[in-house]
Amino acid sequence: MVASDDGADLTTTTDHLRVRAAESFWLWLAALTLPLLMIAPALWNGYPLLQWDTGGYLARWYEGYLVPSRSTVFGLYLHYGEAFGFWINIAAQSLVTLWLLQLTLRVLGLMQTSRFVAISLVLIVSTALPWLASMLLTDIFAGLSILSLFLLVVGGQRISTLEKISLFVFTAFAAATHSATLGVLFGLCVAGWMMRPLLGPRLPLAGLTQASLTIVAGGLMLVSANHALSGQWAWTPGGTGVAFGRMMQDGIVARFLNDHCPRENLKLCPYRDELPATADEFLWGHSMFNTLGRFDGMNDEMGTIVVQSLKDYPAWQAGAALRAMGQQLLRVATGEGTNGWIPHTRGIIERYIPAQAAPMRAARQQNWQLDFTVINWLHVPVALASLLALVAVLGHALAKRRLDDLTLLAATVTLALLGNAFICAVISGPHDRYGARMVWVATFVVLMALARRFGEDGKAR
After folding, report:
1. What is the pTM of this model?
2. Exposed (0-12), middle (13-18) or buried (19+): which is 26, by Cβ within 10 Å?
3. Is the pLDDT of residue 193 over 80?
4. Residue 84 CA from chain centroid, whole number
5. Looking at the predicted structure, is the pLDDT value of residue 283 above 90?
6. Strand pairing partners for 363?
7. Which of 62-71, 120-129, 233-242 has the lowest mean pLDDT?
8. How many percent of the chain have pLDDT more than 70?
């Protein structure tokens, strides 16, 4: 009997050591390879990926004035990475992405190194996440901020004080990088406060308060940066101009001009029969918008038309908004705008950061070697299937009256996707870029639900 007990103890010890060795292997694999895989598109490209909008953010430090929809906070973030060829920005985006993925798994009680590696690899291969992390644009922070806000609310004693501070700073920064991100986060906080009387301890008062204060901190951060760079205590301009473009695309502006030009002297009246078909053509192409002074010359009139047309055509506006929102939910392809046609950004880099001009021009993107056709054969079906599966996960949990943290996260991500679709589609019109930057979070939630289900099945057996 003694020999038998010794043998059992030896077997148990051997199994334990084998498990520890396997866990150590996965840990080292994650530490060495995942940060590089998360920015593999930038490494393959030979330079961080760029977009047309990137130049507008980069120029804020040098030009010293505010322009529509270009956050000075994000501009400063890019400026501090210039001396390192912006690779420090890409590295930070990779590391903060992996940090939030593992922290979410840990808080939800699903963290195992092998599981973290597997889920990360699936996200890298099948979603836009590595392309977002590899790009000098605010989009990576849109989805990550949903996770960080959620963790602030529900983390409680499961996260350390340092982690709470880090989450708070990151969420505030993300809110300051883009008005749409701030709007989604604000909407989630409002929804949280509305649901707290029903959910009670599931939405801790301290967590909701901390999350809400990130919105305030992000707003203060943005206004302070605007003042530091431009001398103005002002919000980033441009909201009404972009909304005007969307209304023009829906035909509302043409109807407004036809109704009002006979009795009002508007700058656009002589051009009412020549309006471009899309908002992008009007705002960023060679249209009468340039002739009339762009935002400086047209802001007041565009604002007037936006406000007045909401009053004049409420049913039309509501119908257009709902259609655009529905279209936005289905616009999820990776890579919109990530191509070689970025003359503004190239010009900004060549003018203000000449040391970066040569490596930027040598990159595959600038030589038109990027094609997302094959990539989207996988990414689009995965994204759309994730949306359906997210609704199924949430519906199943509610049917079973299972109100745990994963259910709360599924509800949070669902609200965030709806809010993002509404804000982006109504203001700017539907674009794949706005969907792709958020939908990977749905895939992440679905993968966690599958991991938990298989884990429970394994325990049951």
Report:
1. 0.91
2. middle
3. yes
4. 24
5. no
6. none
7. 233-242
8. 93
Confidence of residue 457 (pLDDT cuts 50, 70, 90): low
Report residue 352 as tokens: 């203000």
Q: Mean pLDDT across the stretch 81-89? A: 96
Alpha carbons 334 and 152: distance in angstroms, whole number: 29
- Placement of tokens 């990539």 in the chain: 375
Q: Could you write out the three-class secondary structure of the chain?
A: CHHHHHHHHHHHHHHHHHHHHHHHHHHHHHHHHHHHHHCHHHHHHCCCECCCCHHHHHHHHHHCCCCCCCCHHHHHHHHCCHHHCCHHHHHHHHHHHHHHHHHHHHHCCCCCHHHHHHHHHHHHHHCCHHHHHCECCCHHHHHHHHHHHHHHHHCHHHCCHHHHHHHHHHHHHHHHHCHHHHHHHHHHHHHHHHHHHHHHHHCCHHHHHHHHHHHHHHHHHHHHHHHHHHCCCCCCCCHHHHHHHHHHHCCHHHHHHHHHCCCCCCCCHHHCCCCCCCHHHHHHCCCHHHHCCHHHHHHHHHHHHHHHHHHHCHHHHHHHHHHHHHHHHHCCCCCCCCCCCCHHHHHHHHHHCHHHHHHHHHCCHHHCCCCCHHHHHHHHHHHHHHHHHHHHHHHHHHHCCCCCHHHHHHHHHHHHHHHHHHHHHHHHCCCHHHHHHHHHHHHHHHHHHHHHHHHHHHHHC
What number is the average pLDDT over the span 9-24? 66
